[in-house]
């Protein structure tokens, strides 16, 4: 059973509540020194230059810009990282400029922050880059409107952007030596995980492979999508990812035949992985007996992967993506911004909470109450995970960080020595983000305290002020942005489940036509949708028990859906290598049944039992479909 499903089962059995351990990323990552050192250098360099010039304050905004860009780095190709970090830095600079211009304008500042929160919410819906840019736009608008920094707004905004550019430059220094290092690493990771499937096809390993493959496609296709002209090497990397998917499907087919994969194929894939990692030619694949459709599919896929690494030319129809123009991308972004119930609800929630926090700041009820607005902006971010979990973790992390920051301010005298703990906390930020929101807040709180102390000389009292403002911000989010909204208590597992069913139906429409060049595209869409469903489910089970208790009833249906998707891909793989394909009537019946179940789930109805033709080619697909319908009907997920 996949780890995230076991986690749900543990919660049902009375384990520690998941909302105390909710993570920002799907799984904790090991300590990585590269990002930590880069962040420390990026943040402290402007401060060191400011100290050397006798103008410490002049280094604050570049340091903040560097920190903004550094925490926006999510890995991937150099191009993707540059766009994401650059967008965050530019949006932050624009937000600071606008906020600084309305600083001190009374209730107009409150209205301004409400309008910026609406813009931020809409931008956040268009994807990862929009999400990060929207967040930094709002955060820096709050800072610009709440803190008076010496110098003109335009000059300060420019210094912020320059600091962000410095962080981007540090992050992409390896591009000159190895411009495709990230893409190659993602493909190597896919084949290392693929090697594990030869010894075990348990659900945990399959989920790990699917996630790694999805990340590989995103990294390689993201790097290639706007590359000028043709790029044979990236085409080869995409084709290798495609072959890895075919090998996986063939292994599932072998399981359906009740057979183990031949040792020769496993050894070839291991050698292939090392060849890609070492930049060498792979060894000749060892011959294996191909006495069944599944074995023929496996041996053929492995042999073609070896040929790709050996230098075989890649045809354009092997690339599993659909090229789209800039106009199409813009229309899609515009649609995401303005359509959808969840988008409208999130925008209203954020505007309401930001208005309340800004009003508190304008009334001067608390000292430095702009920290309250910052807390609202950071916590009320639904695409970062559970809002409830982040509110609790933000409060706990800030409490711990405030204690640490107080101790540092008491021990370390004001002056250049304060740069040492600043560098330490900046280095720990990437690690905290990889683990969970609370740990990130634990490192972020003392870092912010030390930066503000450089500007204001506020001393240890700053920690008390920061903690109080953060708690008020978390309270605003829970009382105004969480509890009153039904959408907060309804994780969209059902709609995403239906999306996966429709994606699998779309794949089956094309799966048995060997001349259809879009088959791999549809299969990737199906597994992408399945990966998104796992993410939605994982976030949902980290909510309080009142919500997660209902969501975990989807567990049996999710397992059945994984089995149905695997059975569909494996059946198509076998028909490509000798098994008679199913009739068009039988395929249409399965597709119609999937769409009917998806429609019933969207409407909240109990699906009827489908009537499917009995054909040997679709036996496993039909069996998985019946099982899925039964689990959806019996468990009646909420």
Notes on the protein architecture:
- The protein has 638 residues and is mainly alpha-helical.
- The chain has 25 helices and no strands.
- The longest helix is centred in the middle third of the chain and has 25 residues, at 232-256.
- Its main location: membrane.
Distance between the termini: 21 Å
Shape: globular
| Contiguous uncertain segments of 5+ residues | 1-30, 224-230, 313-325
Rg estimate, integer Å = 26 Å
Specify the structural class.
mainly alpha
Q: What is the mean pLDDT?
A: 77
Pfam family, one: FUSC_2
Domain Integral membrane bound transporter: 357-479
Membrane topology: Multi-pass membrane protein
Main location: membrane
Topology, please?
Blueprint: H1 3-12, H2 33-52, H3 60-71, H4 78-101, H5 107-123, H6 128-146, H7 153-171, H8 181-197, H9 203-224, H10 232-256, H11 263-278, H12 293-310, H13 326-338, H14 341-362, H15 370-379, H16 387-411, H17 419-435, H18 437-456, H19 461-480, H20 493-511, H21 519-540, H22 545-551, H23 555-575, H24 584-603, H25 619-635
């Amino acid at each position: 059973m996949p780890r995230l499903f076991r986690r749900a089962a543990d919660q049902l059995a009375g384990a520690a509540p998941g909302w105390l351990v909710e993570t920002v990323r799907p799984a904790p990552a090991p300590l990585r020194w590269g990002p930590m050192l880069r962040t420390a250098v990026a943040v402290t360099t402007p401060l060191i230059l400011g100290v050397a010039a006798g103008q410490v304050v002049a280094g604050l905004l570049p340091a903040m810009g560097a920190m903004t860009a550094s925490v926006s780095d999510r890995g991937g190709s150099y191009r993707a990282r540059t766009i994401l970090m650059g967008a965050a830095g530019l949006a932050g600079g624009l937000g600071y400029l606008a906020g600084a211009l309305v600083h001190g304008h009374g209730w107009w500042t409150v209205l301004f922050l409400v309008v910026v929160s609406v813009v931020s919410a809409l931008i956040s819906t268009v994807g990862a880059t929009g999400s990060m840019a929207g967040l930094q736009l709002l955060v820096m608008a709050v800072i610009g409107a709440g803190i008076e920094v010496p110098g003109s707004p335009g000059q300060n905004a420019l210094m912020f952007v320059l600091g962000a550019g410095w962080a981007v430059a540090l992050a992409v220094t390896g591009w000159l030596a190895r411009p495709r290092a990230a893409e190659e690493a993602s493909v190597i990771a896919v084949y290392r995980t693929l090697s594990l499937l030869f010894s075990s096809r348990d659900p945990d390993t399959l989920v790990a492979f699917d996630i790694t493959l999805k990340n590989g496609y995103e990294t390689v296709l993201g790097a290639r999508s706007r590359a000028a002209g043709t790029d044979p090497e990236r085409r080869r990397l995409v084709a290798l990812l495609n072959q890895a998917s075919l090998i996986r499907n063939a292994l599932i087919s072998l399981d359906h035949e009740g057979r183990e994969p031949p040792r020769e194929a496993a050894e070839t894939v291991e050698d292939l992985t090392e060849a890609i990692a070492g930049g060498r030619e792979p060894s000749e694949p060892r011959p294996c007996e191909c006495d069944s459709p599944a074995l023929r599919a496996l041996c053929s896929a492995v042999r073609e992967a070896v040929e790709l690494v050996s230098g075989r030319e890649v045809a354009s129809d092997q690339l599993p993506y659909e090229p789209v123009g800039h106009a199409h991308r813009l229309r899609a972004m515009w649609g995401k911004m303005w359509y959808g119930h969840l988008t409208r609800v999130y925008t209203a929630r954020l505007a309401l909470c930001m208005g309340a926090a800004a009003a508190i700041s304008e009334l001067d009820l608390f000292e430095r109450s702009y920290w309250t607005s910052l807390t609202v902006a950071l916590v009320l971010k639904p695409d970062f995970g559970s809002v409830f979990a982040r509110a609790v973790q933000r409060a706990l992390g800030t409490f711990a960080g405030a204690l640490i920051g107080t101790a540092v301010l008491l021990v370390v005298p004001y002056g250049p020595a304060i740069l040492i703990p600043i560098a330490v906390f900046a280095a720990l930020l990437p690690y905290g983000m990889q683990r969970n929101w609370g740990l990130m807040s634990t490192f972020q709180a003392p870092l912010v305290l030390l930066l503000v102390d450089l500007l204001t000389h506020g001393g240890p009292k700053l920690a008390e002020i920061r903690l109080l403002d953060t708690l008020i911000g978390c309270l605003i989010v829970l009382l105004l942005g969480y509890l009153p909204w039904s959408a907060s208590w309804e994780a969209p597992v059902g709609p995403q489940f239906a999306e996966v069913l429709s994606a699998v139906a779309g794949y089956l429409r094309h799966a048995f036509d060997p001349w259809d060049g879009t088959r791999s595209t549809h299969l990737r869409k199906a597994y992408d949708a399945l990966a998104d469903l796992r993410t939605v489910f994982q976030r949902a089970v980290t909510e309080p028990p009142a919500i997660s208790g209902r969501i975990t009833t989807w567990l049996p249906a999710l397992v059945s859906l994984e089995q149905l998707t695997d059975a569909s891909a494996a059946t198509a793989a076998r028909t490509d290598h000798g098994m008679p394909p199913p009739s068009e009537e039988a395929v249409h019946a399965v597709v119609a049944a999937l769409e009917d179940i998806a429609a019933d789930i969207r409407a909240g109805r109990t699906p009827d039992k489908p009537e499917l033709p009995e054909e040997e080619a679709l036996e496993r697909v039909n069996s998985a479909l019946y099982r899925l319908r039964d689990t959806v009907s019996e468990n009646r997920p909420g």
